[in-house]
Amino acid sequence: MKNKKVILIVLGVVVVAALIVTNLLMDTSKAISVNTAEILQDDITEEVSASGRIQPRSKVDITSEINGEIITLAVKEGQPVNAGDLLVVLDTVQIASDVSQAKYRLDEIKARLEGARTSLEQAEEEFRRQEKLYEQQLTSETMFKNVRYAYLSSQSSHTAMEASTNQMQAAYEKQLDYFEKAKIVSPMTGVVTFLDVEVGEIAAAQTAFTQGRTLMTISDMSVFEVEVEVDETEINKIMLGQVSDIKVDAFPDTSFVGEVVEIGNTAIMANYGGQDQSTNFKVKVMFEDVDLMLRPGMSATVDMTTAVRENVLSLPFSAIVMRSYDMDSLIAARETETSGLSAVSEVQAAESDSTDDELEKKDDEEREDLKGIFILKDGVARFVEVETGIADQKNIEITVGVEFGDTVVCGPYRVLRTIKDGDEVEAIVKDDEEGEE
To answer: Which of 188, 299, 321, 347 gets the highest tally of CB atoms within 10 A of its CB?
Structure first.
């Protein structure tokens, strides 16, 4: 019996010891693991990014003003040209025939006009002679009136013939103009950057009702720009003269300096009425220097610098949260903290799983959305309202609410969604920091 009791006692001691060791080894901490960052003083550059395509600053699409077959193509794509250089010659056989016919009609009407002028002079002389005789009562009234009517008729015929002559002259000049337009010359100095015709093709004329076919494009390759579309929420940040960084997809390791030279005033609507509806504004950014590697149509991304802040307090953008608080309880909690008491737990976030019946009965009007961060103080997360300034892709400027060196909670995202003021937290130690230690 004694041995049995001893065995039971030993087993009991072993069990108790095991429980003690287990409790010691178990992590009983309720602290939430969080990522942290310190408030630093740094320079922040705010940028607006947009993508577009490279195009010459100045270019002209060449079209024909008459219909005709191309019989001569004097340039090739990529060829430099000067203003006035011959580009295209169209077949002029039919046009030359039309010019000849118009000239014949003009000569005929001019001859008729000369005959009408002679008849008018004769009628006028006879009228003046009869007028004097009538005044001297040496001729009858009937004779005088007949001569007068003949003179007026000759005047009308001459006037009509003059109008017809002017009409024929205009028709002849029009045909001459068509004949001259059969030879298309360059309106500017540049480079042929687009050519879409061959000898033997028909050049369709551009009219008031039809666009016509673009035969080629002449571009000024001395100045390039990128045309991008900026969202309406950011267009108010863009100003003329802003320095920009241009990255061309074809040259991933090279950056080009640019400047905003044009901002559109009219909105560009995309997918109107659909789920992906967007409103953008056209912005043009000009390259500061010309690089011979650039080609029209290349894809590019532009980062336009809209604001710069030097030596300001900043923290990761991910640390900013929005909370809806009951202002009465928030003020009361702050007054209590000022007096040295710990009553932060009375402040509840709208996103938390609060079971405080009194707070749940508060009207929505007694709450307001606050922008803030959670600062780490003595292992506890404290919500602090902040005011922010500009931001870059990672960090954001803090103008009110924090001090240099404060430690803030910046992740993970799932924690920031649910964390409450007063929660116990512990910072996650990164592997590289452990290695350095």
So the answer is: 347
Picking from 306, 263, 304, the residue whose alpha carbon sits closest to that of residue 284 is: 263
Report the pLDDT value the prediction gives residue 385, as an integer from 0 to 100: 83
pLDDT tens, position by position, 361-385: 454 555 677 888 888 888 888 888 8
Query: Among 241-250, 282-291, 332-341, which is the least confidently predicted range?
Result: 332-341
User: What pLDDT digit, counting tens, does each position of 29-57 carry?
Assistant: 577 888 888 888 888 888 899 999 999 98
Which tokens belong to 140?
């009858």
* Proportion of the chain in helix, strand, coil states, percent, rounded to 5: 35, 40, 30
Say if residues 190 and 168 touch (Cβ distance below 8 Å). no
Residue 248, C-beta contacts closer than 8 angstroms, at least 6 positions apart: 54, 254, 256, 294, 298, 299, 300
DSSP summary character for residue 424: B
Q: Identify the three-state secondary structure at position 288.
A: coil
The model's pLDDT over 134-179, given as tens digits with 9 standing for 90+, comes to 888 888 889 989 999 999 999 999 999 999 999 999 999 999 998 8
State the burial class of residue 384 (Cβ atoms within 10 Å of its Cβ: 0-12, 13-18, 19+): middle
Q: Please give the C-alpha separations between residue 85 and each of 89, 163, 181, in angstroms, as whole numbers.
A: 12, 39, 14
Exposure class string for 68-107: b at 16+ Cβ within 10 A, else e: bebeebebeeeeebeeeeebbbbbbeebeebbeebeebbe
Relative to beta strand 214-231, strand 190-195 is: antiparallel
**Full strand arrangement of the beta sheet holding 68-73:** 183-185, 86-90, 68-73, 202-203
Please write the tens of the pLDDT for every residue from 260-293: 999 999 988 877 766 777 889 999 999 998 777 8
Choose among 289, 284, 297: nearest CA to 217. 297
In CATH, 217-309 is 2.60.40.10: no
**In this structure, are residues 98 and 177 in contact, taking their beta carbons and an 8 Å threshold?**
no
Instruction: Compute the distance between CA of residue 77 and CA of residue 56 in angstroms, rounded to an integer.
Output: 15
Closest CA to 258 of 235, 281, 236, 290: 290
Q: Where are the domains of the chain?
A: 92-181, 217-309, 321-385+406-436
Query: The pTM is what?
Result: 0.62
